[in-house]
Amino acid sequence: MSMKVIAYANGNPLALEIYGQELKGKMSEMDAAFVKLKKDPPHTIRDGLRSVYNSLDIESMSLDTSDLKIDVKHDVFKNMFNLRYLRIYNSSTKDVTGLNFPNGLGSLPCQLRLLHWENYPLQALPQNIDFGHLVELSMPYSQLQELAAITTKNLKMLKRIRLRHSQQLVRFDQLLYAGNIELIDLQYCTRLERFPDTSELQHLRVVNLSGCTEIKSFQGAPPNIEELHLQGTSISEIPISMVTHSSQVKLDRKKLLSILDEFEDDEHIDLESVTNMAKVSSCTRGFGKLVHLNMKDCSKLECLPDMVSLESLQVLLLSGCSRLGKIKTFPRNMRKLYIGGTAVREVPQLPQTLEFLNAHGCKCLESIDFDFEQLPRHYIFSDCYSLSSQLIAKFLEKGLTRVANLARAKQQELNEAPEVSMCIPIKARHRALFSLQFSSNAKIDLPPLIQKSLSGFAMSVVVSFKEDYHNALGFGIRCVCTWKSGDDEPDRILERFYQCWAPLEVPKVERDHIFVFYDTGMHPSASEDSRPEVTFEFHTVSWGNKLLGDTCRVTECGVQVIKPPTDGITTESEAIRIIEDDLPSRPSSREPEAKTRSLSSRDMLRKLVGCFSRVKKSRKDRTKTLTDRERSEREAFKLALNTAENAAANAVVII
Might you name a Gene Ontology BP term for this protein (predicted)? Predict the structure, then answer.
């Protein structure tokens, strides 16, 4: 018990003396008495510590309230004139107040630079508080209702306000006087109904209103804002269109003259056209530097405006916008796009810069505009059941073309991630697009000729998900590649980890899915005269590369070889050509193998283009009347075959 008391008092002589007096003679009840003292320290300790601290010239104070439950006098900070950094926090996961102020709080030090106070127990700050030196105000999980007590005339030093999870907050107006504010974090302030106009705040870069369910609009965008988080709000119209629809358009003389110069006829100028052009020119005035826009789970959002002029926007999150059914255009420099769970049926042309596309749960998605040169490197179509075989084949074709050109251009630099990855639900009509065997392992032989020009592998992995699967830990595929060259050489093992879904990114899937990886970095060197047997083992793992349980397991897999084009840039028709050399598989008595074989370009295209409705050769079927859809599919299939037969000879090699 003595050691417990010393550790709790942290060696403080005054505290040890007082605790010793309180516990003296209580041998049978010492444990219970010590617990009681921890919850309610003697007044002599509090008064003694207060007198000591008041006599010191304190500049910084940090207090963990997780094990405290005490009443504090209203003038506790009265004599702490030089206190600059105050941090009161709770290191425990328990939601406890810690400090109680039965008579309120009279004041706070006027020299504070940092005020970080978790679970602040009062509804308001001390009256007429002067924050003239304050740089950061951080009071998460507070009971604050408003910030009216702050002296608004002197907030020029304030740069960051963090009041997240302050669920009693109903008013937030004082920031208009903080001319140098850079960040405002009010996420999950669920009673806040209005956010003020911030168009005059030149330095404001980040605004986070996620979880503010009563917010219905965002007016007056800061001119230099870079991140805007509106997840889970009640906004029904994206802020860009709100500015566009504004009836008040202010233009300076220079901008007005530039608009008038666009009219060829100087004598007849349509004033309505001028007004419309003025609105368009001002619609992105506050979003010209916006990089990250989060509209996730905005269930009232139904459509998006034209966003092509938002040239700085790189990340757009629209997942969970269940009413969103139409997208006109995307920002031209966007890199990441999240549209999972929306009602979108058609995706317009994707920007050339796009690297990641997550469309999980877009069950209505049927069409994607393929009028772009390259595919995103990573794209997720889990639970997208309306995708046709033709569309999936087009994605495979686009992805393979990109990989082939990258492999040639980069001269096979080793990478930690695949060049292209893809996830889709696997259906019977899709299986013909892939070379699969019912096993979690695959084996191939690599003759020396193939090794010299090897660019990597195309891997297909089918995963079966049980009904109780829930993506709490993230999901990925681990590939263990073993190269066996002969008896005289040791096996070479290369392990790759492909991260597919972040935790909760794809919460649940309903059916089996196939994951496709085009990897141009998976080719360790081998001796010129060797013919290694390469074994691939696939496992389902968490985001931290830990094996997952039986709720998801690999049931099928297939591996194919990728070779670069012999000359020039690979076109989509060239990307599906097949090498004439056959790579025989070595039989194994232990496990089934994913076999490789040589196909003609016509056969491969038949696989890539998709499983069209085949017409049987019986006389009865030949005379059967075809539906419009069958005629369309047959004509598309014939056109695709003709394209393959006319393709050039130079090709990427897939076996």
Answer: defense response
Q: What's the token pair of residue 365?
A: 């998605």
Structure tokens at 22: 């309180």
Q: How far is CA 410 from CA 403, 406, 506, 544, 565, in A?
A: 10, 6, 32, 29, 13
Strands 356-358 and 336-338 turn out to be parallel
Q: Residue 107 in contact with residue 75, Cβ under 8 Å?
A: yes
Band (pLDDT 50/70/90 cuts) for residue 96 is: low
Considering the chain, what percentage of its residues have pLDDT values greater than 70? 68
Q: Assess contact for 510 and 539: CB atoms under 8 A.
A: no
Domain ranges of the chain: 1-56, 427-654
**What is the structure's pLDDT at 613?**
29
* 442 closest CA partner among 462, 418, 424, 423: 462
CB of 117 closer than 8 Å to CB of 136: no
Cβ-Cβ contacts under 8 Å for 156 (sequence gap 6 or more): 132, 178, 179, 180
CA 474 remoteness from chain centre: 12
Sign of CA dihedral 271, 275, 276, 277: positive
- Whether residue 120 contacts residue 93, with contact meaning beta carbons closer than 8 Å, is answered with no
Residue 531, classed as helix, strand or coil, is: coil
The tokens for 301 are 């959002």
- Backbone dihedral angles phi then psi of residue 448, each to the nearest 5 degrees: -55, -35
> 30: which residues sit within 8 A by CB, 6+ positions away?
1, 23
pLDDT in tens, 104-147: 999 999 899 999 999 999 999 998 788 889 999 999 999 999 98
**pLDDT tens-place string over residues 162-204:** 999 999 999 988 666 788 999 999 999 999 999 988 888 999 9
In angstroms, the CA 415 to CA 157 distance is: 45
Three-state SS string across 208-235, please? Answer: ECCCCCCCCCCCCCCCCCCEEECCCCCC
- Whose CA is closest to 228, among 218, 236, 237? 218
Side chain identity at residue 68, one-letter code: L
Contact 206, 226 (CB under 8 A): yes
Which of 165-174, 236-245, 359-368, 465-474 bottoms out in mean pLDDT, i.e. has the lowest?
236-245
Q: Note the pTM of the prediction, 2 decimals.
A: 0.73
* Residues contacting 540, CB < 8 A, separation 6+: 463, 475, 476, 477, 478, 547, 548, 552, 553, 554
